[in-house]
Amino acid sequence: MKFDLDRLVRENIRRLAPYSSARTEFAGQAEIFLDANENAFGSPLAENYNRYPDPVQGAVRKKVAENNSVNATQIFVGNGSDEAIDLMFRIFCRPGIDNIVICPPTYGMYAVAAGINDVEVKPAPLTGEFDVDPEKIFKTIDDKTRLIFLCSPNNPTGNSIPHGKILEIAEVFGGIVVVDEAYIHFSDESSLLSEIDRYPNLVVLQTFSKAWGLAGLRVGLAFASDEIIRLLDRVKPPYNVSQVAQELVLEALELRSNVADTAAAIVNERKTLSTALSQFSFVIRIYDSDANFLLVKTDSANEIYNFLLEEKIVVRNRSSVELCEGCLRITVGTPKENQALIRALEKYEESIVH
Q1: Given this model, what pLDDT does residue 35 score?
Q2: β 120-123/99-102 pair status
Q3: Which end of the chain is more exposed for a tag (fewer CB within 10 A), N or C?
């Protein structure tokens, strides 16, 4: 089906007059701001935060554009990637009518956002080796399918989806293909950012929460065509990213090489952790990972999970997730944290042997 963006946009969004904030109506230089009903006296807790932040995050978008060889008009900055996910439901999916396709096991927020927006979820499960099957997706979509979500590297499985399969889906599908690259910095695979000009229905999500180490700031990115970004900007809240978050993200963007070094260190530690885990008798399989975590299939996931809790170590029990029976998802920690995990698992193994 030929991609037609205007066909996909909900009628109420087409008619929507976006909220016009004081800071979007003013452009230029000024010394006295009496337009936004801010507290001009400020706060004793912190200086310079009595004013509203830049509603369009101009400096952040400009720097992200420079770092990624895209235009600033192709970038949306959100309150985490979850904001962009939610906005796409509001823009493209009519409640109680339209549907989305996901490929479980995958990031749970896609289905949650669908539920909040009263949108049907149609699953096209991954294969037994956690691969995407385009033909299965094509059989699942119908004329009411508006969004397909693909997570690459995938959470919780850790593997990447081959670019060819993603682009095949984008080529055939007449709706929006959302590729969530939250873990891309830990992968040898390149980003699909270079394809957003060729595929107007492609949206690429990234985040400052993982490799950048800024999860507490809640800042995510969406890269897409100018037209899709304009729609996201029209629907978002007026001041969706705080001043503090924008300032710290700008500082982080100046230290881009440190992010690459940190990601490389995590990948190296991932290999060390995988080797150590493979020695345990209760480990059935460690799946290949392009992320900062390992999916580990065990013969007793619930027992191991509870034992680790007693040792004050928290991992993620994924054994109730489709295709992940018996699996624990283990984030790659610092060398000290990973060593503590291995010691705890050695203790667990001794307890089951005796």
Answers
A1: 86
A2: parallel
A3: C
3-state secondary structure of 207: strand
Angle at 221 between CA 219 and CA 226, to 5 degrees: 140
Which has the closest alpha carbon to 192: 172, 167, 211, 168?
167
Write the CA distances from 343 to 236, 311, 339, integer angstroms. Answer: 47, 10, 6
Domains in the chain, CATH or no CATH each: 5-254 (3.40.640.10), 257-353 (3.90.1150.10)
Show Cβ contacts of residue 275 under 8 Å, excluding neighbours closer than 6 positions. Answer: none
- pTM exceeds 0.70, yes or no: yes
- Render pLDDT for 4-37 as a digit per residue (tens, 0 to 9): 999 999 999 999 988 888 778 777 788 888 888 9
Q: If you ran DSSP here, which 8-state letter would residue 300 be given? A: -
Q: Are strands 327-331 and 293-298 parallel, antiparallel or unpaired?
A: antiparallel
Strands 327-331 and 120-123: unpaired
